[in-house]
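Running this now, will post back.
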Amino acid sequence: MSHKLRCSSLTSVRISITLLLFLSTSFPSTLLASGFVVPTLSSPITTLNRSADSPLLRMTSDKFHFAIDRGGTFTDIHCLLPNGEEIVTKLLSVDPNNYDDAPTEGIRRILQQYDDEDDYPRGAPVKTRKIGSIRMGTTVATNALLEREGERTGLVTTRGFRDLLRIGDQTRPNIFDLTCGGLGVLYEDVVEVDERIMLAEFYQGDTDECDDSDEQMLLTDYATNKWPRAGVGPRITGITGETIIALSPPNPSFVRASLQSLADKGIKSIAVVFLHSYVYPAHELMVGRIAEEMGCFHEIALSHQVMSMVKMVPRGHTACASAYLTPKIRQYLEGFTKGFDEGLLKTASLRLDFMKSDGGLTPVEDFGGHQAILSGPAGGVVGYAKTSYRAAGGEKPLPVIGFDMGGTSTDVSRYDGSLEHVFETTTAGVSIQAPQLDIHTVAAGGGSRLFLQNGLFVVGPESAKAHPGPVCYRKNGYLAVTDANVVLGRVIPDHFPRIFGPNEDKPLDLEGAKAAFRALADANPETSGKSIEELAYGFVQVANEAMCRPIRNLTQMRGFDITKHALACFGGAGPQHACAMARALGITKVYIHRYGGVLSAYGLSMADAVVEEQEPAKEIYAVSSVSSNGFDENQDPSKSTREARLEHLAQKAQSALIKQGYSEDCIIIEKFLNMRYDGTDNAIMIKENVNLKDVRLPFAQTFVEQYHREFGFELKGRDILIDDFRVRAFVPGFTPNPPPMVPPLGSPTPLGTSKAYFENGWEDVPTYKFEDLNPGHELKGPAIIVQSISTIVLEIGCTVFVTGDGDLDITVEKKSTCDETGIGEKIEVEEDPVQLSIFAHRFMGIAEQMGRTLARTAISVNIKERLDFSCALFTNDGGLVANAPHIPVHLGAMQSAVRFQVEYWNAEGREGIKEGDVFVSNHPQLAGGSHLPDITVITPVFYEGSILFFVASRGHHSDIGGISPGSMPPHSESLKEEGARIVAFKLVKDGKFQEDGITDILVNQEFGGSKLNARNLKDNLSDLRAQVAANNSGIRLLHELIRENGLHTVEAYMHFIQHNAEMAVRSMLKRFAAEHGTRAHAIDYMDDGTPIELTIDIDQATGSACFDFNGTGPQVLGNINAPPAVTYSAVIYSLRSLVGQDIPLNQGCLSPIEFKIPRFSLLNPSDDVGVVGGNVLTSQRVVDVVLKAFKACAGSQGCMNNLTFGDKKFGYYETIAGGAGAGPTWDGRSGVHTHCTNTRITDPEILERRYPVLLRQFGLRKGSGGNGQHPGGDGVVREIEPLRPLTMSILSERRTLHPYGMEGGEPGETGKNLLIKKNGVMLNIGAKRSFAIDVDERLMINTPGGGGYGKK
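Update: finished.
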């Protein structure tokens, strides 16, 4: 066989292998069954002669070095040959007719082709004598996680927390999805162990000690449900130096028996997750030893070993991921190693490493499932970081945005000289707490399907997938982005392999794609008059905007100027979209590497070997100094501990690398502190700046600078704390030299011309073959560059230069600003569905970025952590344009607040609205508020001296005065008792923050002769400033939008987008009337018997409806009264959920609705009654009534279970999950927030570390969901014990009347609030109560279940 293809026989061969359907669509075996091997020249242009003594690669002149990215569809291989030349190959990841394992087969083929001394027959183990190293990135773990195909896993956890990971942070992923759908947990069974430790910091009782025999007496009897007494147990110093109290150690006999019960069920992996094990791991270690002795588990994941960080929920999910996925990886590795001779594992000089999610290599034996989630994408990040960052040249290269467009999704990331890591992410519904590259994913790729919905162009999230694929693949597939590019001439069938059709010998089906677009146009009247090319181009524009959105979030929301970045494009589909996206983003540089289609594999060849070590801490790094308005440099309280622990971690990490065979002098150590301001929860990982070693408190300087850049301010007067010590030891991988300078050669000769569609219509464009481009060649767009199985689209105004390495350096002409920006005479703007879809993305993107600005600049836990806020855009008359879907009860409600301020300040005798003004209000009845803690900040958007729009943000402040801490008094009867009331005040006047004025409002409150001042004024002021900052970010982005598109266009599309939402709601109402009749009615009751009655009359012809609440009971002497804005929010949420599709959320949703709400009723009370419960309780009942009238689903828990507790030193507030109602096709979800709220709950370890309480249990309330064909979701049980006397307040509903069932389904259980006294007596304290609670007493909250649907 003639297989030795020598590079010398070729002339100027360079190639970047990329894929049309973008690493997600399988090509038939005729193309790739035998692989696609591309050699490169031994010339200065393409050869990277790497140093033979490279400390990481250990290159030798007679070895092959492989870097392999095993993806879900394709496996890419980069190989460095013994002579220093590089080749790449690509083959199908799964092709059982030709080979068992793609990486093994790829290695075999390359060795067979390039090793003259040995033969490598198919079917025989591959000889490893000539292999120097193998590095692999793999999606095996990711796919197993997505498809839930890991090892059968059991969870071992602290008693009282068996359901904690199932509840998670209690939020639902999509607030408008009535099913509250989620992917579920990874474990299938749970064992609760009677073990418990507590932190001693807040314990104020006797210092009870006991010996070992006493400890056994403290074990509790499960039958009596008693808990070990707080404070009783040995004192032990934990890892952080904190004193912990071991209340109850595990009983070895019980542990062994429980583990045996798991093994008897066939469970082969366990995850052990105990409360506070990050600081005291002894109990987990005991269970681990017992499990290991038993010998019946393949994987034992101890959470403190997997990731030793505070937060039980993400640490627990991470341990489960490790237990669930590591056996899957091990199973794959066993299959992989069987394809080689024994030298693969026994030859010391042959390195077998895997890429972790953090961008570092690790030996095969240390590779865990939780580290592998981003194994594949991580290689691409390393690849562009090492090839594109240096390509910019100059003293400081441009920061680079990585743009990796695949078939079903697109990954974006950022690089500015160092890899950026995050330490908590969510993948496939599982929170992973581990160092991972900061990669953002959006569900838009080459295979994303195309839809027209409610007059909008929609791209994804559904994908055509590998099979059947796009229409043009001749397999009866779905219309996708790929089809649009084919129709537009951006992918040329004649230059693409003829591999389609039944016999795999046909070209891409252009006519089929055209027919599919034509059918789509014919079926949708809103696209009448558009050609199929205009339709296809519109979808490409919408896809581009969808992919621009995460890039804006990645940069702008963190304070970076997006225009001062380069765009590094890789992945199969990226080159077709990169230039257009760069122009839309204001980016002027695009880089496409010659190996752009296999950049993940290429990145693996250059990656560092990394070992990370981390330990939790509780240290003060810097003490605040009031006198210097900074930090006391004479105090360094953590110095000795800090230096010793960092050095210990450094030695540990260094030893691990030395053990792997690396020389000590090649190892670089980086030290980090995870730091935060005292009183906040947002820690930032700060790397030691070696240039500041001579500066006192160098970490503090870096921390303050980074905090200010990320959050926009500093918190002066607060200590800086250390939460974790971290060390990253690494051996640097290869970094290419900058490309050699080459003289310009002008334009090459085109292969020919073809027609392609751009913004001006069809263009005759030159077509070039990539391999015909030589260093120095330059060509201008529009043009198309054809690669082997992909295409680069050079847009109009773009110029590409071929670098000395053969990469493409593209300069993008800046997008011109719109000439039509002035106010002047009105210009008629015609509605275009493509532009409507793009503006829908832009408007919502602005509201979302406002929200991110608010979350990162706020101080309070409510806004920063629980995300209890909303941000929105409005027209100049106060009509809602876009409301980012943060908290449902805020939806649409701010419109009333904005309109009131406009009317108030423009009324005769008042000073009007001026540039530099910002308004604040919270009055529910008079100023369009919801309840007093929700403070709305409103800013007019001026342009050329006129008000064009408004932006607003509403945030829940933790305390604004009133008769109880947290400003959520359960027993208030008047508004005065609930806190500060703000009807209209200029928070900013002439550009100056009116601190004295707002302070006076917040602290000068009286009721009954007593002062009811806000209890945490500093946080109030900080959060108000954050709201102003969020509004300012919205103003800046709106001005950008005007510059890009023109004022009149932006204004017109604000109204068009409202009309679009209106028509979607009208269509839904017409459909309901046709099926169920034009009248709907429902009634439900509050626990006090007050009815909420609704009659809906629908005009079937127009889709208008009257929502008549006559029959609703009168306002009450209490606080469950709800102002009209709350009803509007509840209705807009319900209508948006009933539409069932992603439509713009704005005032248009309510335009078809006429409201009739009787005055002085529960839903339209007078301006002096209490309303704090109306926002959090009555709102839920209004939603229940609306959904009941529409026969949508059974009743959900109908409550937010508002709990506050505190004393004179602190206040804490949370809302608690319950059961969701079942529907006609779904079971109700358990332990989740429903309808009008979606706030997070505090992690148990954070709760106990920051507040003087013990969380005794937090789990599902089994059987509380109503029975039915589809049962309702279960509520939860949450039991809290104070460690010092506190005041607790509970504000709740559904304690008397059950959540309703539907269509024969049974109702859900009511909730119950119990005070458990010291003697064990339980007192039912009712739904609404404020009470003193003492040490050794407990509050147990049982939340309601959801109703069932259908008769069982």
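The first helix runs from residue 29 to 32. More later if anyone needs it.
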